[in-house]
Amino acid sequence: MPRPLDLPQRRRDITAIALRILSEVGLDGLTLKAIAVELGGSITLVTHIYPTRRDLLLGIAENLLDEYDAQLPELEAGAADRPERLRILLEWMLPRSDAGWSQERSRIVLLSDTETGPILASKMDLRMRALIREHLVGLVPADEVDEHVDLLRVLTNGIVLASVEHRSDWPAERQVRTLHAALRRLDLLPAPSAT
Asked: What is the pTM of this model?
């Protein structure tokens, strides 16, 4: 009797393989067959969940958003106050590790697909903006929230793009230092204490 299929795990496995392929060889190398080979079986291992490449690309984005929603509460557990939660969120958005860099490179490549890229960009941007907005409420005057969302979204996107384009010039320390400097200038992070 065949083992029951663990659909959530299969989706995670497919997403992990797809992101690695996107990071290493780009959009042209991402095929249902390439993923199936890495899963160790036939293409039906993939098409059972994602019947088409379009479904796969949209599914990758959904899985990334689900992963974001699962990770963030864990990171924020024990955060002392709203500024601390905002700092954690924005640092989390940066590619400060090899895995983070690879994932951001994959996400950027994923967004370059002419058919699904605009859909994915919109979904991801809406989610990131919503997260920033949630974290800003109570930190800035209500009539300035939209402006701060735009500034912080552009800031984090800019750091991500600079890091992906010029990885050796943008190590984790520089990314965080730049983010903190901007947050201090926006009065969203206290100045470091002189010790």
From this structure: 0.85
